[in-house]
Amino acid sequence: MGLGSLGVGLEHPLWSTTVKANSTKVLGQSYTIDELIGKNPRDLVGDTYLTTMQKDTALALGQMQAAALEDGIEIEVVSAYRSFDRQKSIFQRKYRRYTQEGTPAAAAVKRIIEYSTIPGTSRHHWGTDLDLIDGGVSKPKSVLETRHYYGQGVFCDFNLWMQENADKFGFFQVYTNDPNRNGFAHEPWHYSFAPVSIPMLEAYRAIDLYELLINENLSGAQVLTPEFLADYKKYHILDINPLLLA
Question: For the segment 132-163, what is each residue's pLDDT rounded down to a tens digit?
Answer without folding.
Answer: 999 999 999 999 999 999 999 999 999 999 99
